[in-house]
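hi! just following up on the protien thing from before. the input was this:
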Amino acid sequence: MATAAVHTAPAVPTPSGRLLFAGALAGPVFFASAIAQMLTREGFDITRHPISQLATGDLGWIQIATFVLAGLGSLALAAGVRRTLTEGIGRRALPVLIAIFGAGMIAAGVFTMDPENGFPAGTPDGPVAEMSWHGITHSAAAAVSFTALAIAAIVLAVRCARRRAVPAAVGNGVAALVLLLPMSPDHMSIQIAVNGLVAFTWTTVLALSPALRRSA
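and the predicted 3d structure came back as:
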């Protein structure tokens, strides 16, 4: 007796799922672009030049676009979290804090820091004599965005602790601690890179969280 073939339609991503997917991509896209530029831009030295300095010079538009895309991905993550996290501690605060982070990344891209310390090639060695208005805005936007994400990590740590998810609570606490550490003048560019890695790893892990995916 012949049996009828059963065809199942492929799952269609929900709007919430698409938002979380965009949020998960923000970090990998940011660092893939930044690393490629670090390896190819003449004169760039991560021990002397923060990643943000890649936004200066003739090819600076690449890093500017990278900041903006990462910021938009983070805003998508904020919207996805708002849609899927509907109960418990942090359901209101987390989307707002993540959105501030995303907006700060966009602002950090639009308002570039000043060329200094020999980068881009041809720039005089040493720090800039006086920061420009857009350099000051860049620094302020970056500070606000990372602080907001650190607070988000603290909120999520409390949420996980209340649910007895101890490893997740500890992980969020460590991420917040790293993001809130004072900047060392001697190792600032390395510390900024580490902060970026921690921040975007946090957003990617959150976007891929099974708890959010089940709700999407």
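The chain has one domain: 16-115+132-213.
Residues 57 and 120 are 6 Å apart (CA to CA).
cheers
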